[in-house]
Amino acid sequence: MHQAAQLDCRPLREDFGVEIRGINLNEIAPPEEQAIVEAFQAHGALLLRGQALAAEQFERFVALFGEAEDHTLKQYTLPGHPKIFMLSNRIENGRPVGAHNDGIGWHTDHGFKALPVMCTMLHALQVPPEGSDTLLADLCAAYEALPAERRARLDGLHLLHSYEYLMTTRAHGRSALTDEVRAENPDVVHPLVRTHPANGRRALWVSGGTRGIVEMPGEEGMALIEELLGFVTEDRFVYRHKWQVGDVLVWDNRCTLHTGTLFDDTRYIREMYRMWVKGDRPYFDPLPHQAAACGA
Question: What is the pTM of this model?
């Protein structure tokens, strides 16, 4: 294995995320590749500005982190590149180029799968001059901010994640599922508190698109989900990303929530590539970890 290179980094916010500067992703060598992946595992989110990646180059970058995941809404994938999903409000020949307002509302990607995606990557091709920010919530910091007795009560609870519930209740892009899509995406159960496999930290892994808590059925569980969503998305835990053309933003779905924000889509075009990397089954480790904080 190559020795990792030293990167020029600055935090996105205190103890969360890093911007990596002075790197051209079209020209990186193995030591830089290794260092970028290590920074991702340690910090929860990465930003690299000023990139100009063709589809093939974006795919090569994503492959550094693992195997690319498939998409649920396959009609919006880039022709010839089925692992690249298009986010766009542009219309061509009377049809949308990509999904619009697809990520509005706090959630974690593919949480409704038995193996949720490890990370999400966006590459900005065209962005509005205002609006369309992406917000990331640090779920490790949120968990660690809870009193010890509250953490103990939440440890070991399980959420019922549901693609059908997500798609039929979200504010934007709400739709009924076909029988085929419903069969492909059955409800799954994941821990409410998730242990990060790379650094041992615990994340308060609550998300939109969950229809209940297994140990607290009915309104009591839904009320707790809403309470925790409000808590983890308080400003003190959130990084707000203001997009520039050429940005590559990577975030770790194992320890974050995210949401898009609206913009004036009658005046502006927003267009991005999105890719996912396959993940593994979420778990909760009852033993305390000894790893350093992500920002250390």
Answer: 0.91
